Amino acid sequence: METHKRNSLIVIILSVIVVIILAFVAIYFNNKAKEKDAEMAEVVEMMNFEKQQVEKEFTDLNSEFSGITTNIHNDSLVKLLDDQKTKVQQLLDELRITKSTNARRIAQLKKELATVRSVMIQYVNQIDSLNSANKELKTENVEVHRKYQAANETVQQLSKEKESLNQVVTRASIMEVTNFGMTTLNSKGKKTGWFSQTANLQFNYTIAKNVTAQTGEKTVYLRITRPDDDVLTKSPSNVFQYEGKNISYSASKKVEYTGDALVDVMYWKVDEILPKGNYRAEFFIDGNRVGSFTFLFEK
């Protein structure tokens, strides 16, 4: 009986000890769990902060790309920058859906960000070089344009001088008819002063000496205008070009001009009744009016 009571007491004491030990163990592990949770929360908070920083860097980098591409006029470089901009946006989108606890992927994204930034720096350096080259080129272009303008003004001035000289030469090369005269002739070719006996009008003239005029065969056109301004002509087809128009002529003659003075004569056969009054005789050579005079027909 006493042995039974003793055994029961031992069991109770052991049970109490076990309960106390279990309580201590439970308290210990509970404290460890709290410490681990606190550490994990701290890690998560740090990873959240790290993720936010990386995300901010991606966003800033993306903005930098946008600012750079708007000031570039090189199509190839713009294409390269746009490709990098697309890559940054893809990495940023992936980062936003990546859990904060995925430290490995966040570290990889951060590394890729550093790579993109390095590439971007290279492009920026290229852009700076291009901008510097463009500034130098613009400066050179301004100077070249200034010199071109000066040269162009010189050419224009020379062109005006040449044109003026050409005009002088052209005017100088125009032949001149002088020493005009008209003689009335009868049917026997004798000079007459009687109106009723006039069969031909003889026009005497001299083509003046001109060393600048083109030599060779020339056609001299004589145009006789009556007092009523009608032109004496033998045929309506007797016309020549003057100042862009076809005008009638009375008589024409081909002469060989050598540049020296040439004395010549032309005739008008009177087949009509000529009214009395003032007549005008004009001479044309090479499309130019080279001389004229008036004469009175009254007897």
List strands and helices in order, with pairings.
Layout: H1 2-69, H2 75-97, H3 103-173, E1 177-185, E2 200-207, E3 216-225, E4 231-232, E5 239-242, E6 245-248, E7 251-257, E8 262-269, E9 277-285, E10 288-297
Antiparallel strand pairs: 1-2, 2-8, 3-4, 3-7, 3-9, 5-6, 9-10
Helix pairs in contact: 1-2, 1-3, 2-3
The SSE order reads HHHEEEEEEEEEE
Approximate strand percentage: 15-25%
Low-pLDDT sequence parts: 164-170
Q: N- to C-terminal separation?
A: 198 Å
The tally of beta strands, per DSSP, is 10
Radius of gyration (Å): 58 Å
- Report the oligomer: single chain
Give the mean pLDDT: 78
Largest sheet: 5 strands, antiparallel
What portion of residues is helical?
40-55%
Counting helices, strands and paired strands, the structural category is alpha+beta
Number of separate domains: 2
Shape category:
rod-shaped
Give the number of helices: 3
What report would you give on this structure?
The protein is α+β, with helices and mostly antiparallel strands and 299 residues long. The protein has 2 domains: 2-130, no CATH class; 177-297, Immunoglobulin-like (Sandwich). Helix content is 54%, strand content 24%. It contains 3 helices and 10 strands. Strands 3, 4, 7, 9 and 10 form a 5-stranded antiparallel sheet that branches. It is rod-shaped and about 200 Å long. The termini are far apart. Residues 164-170 have low confidence and may be disordered.
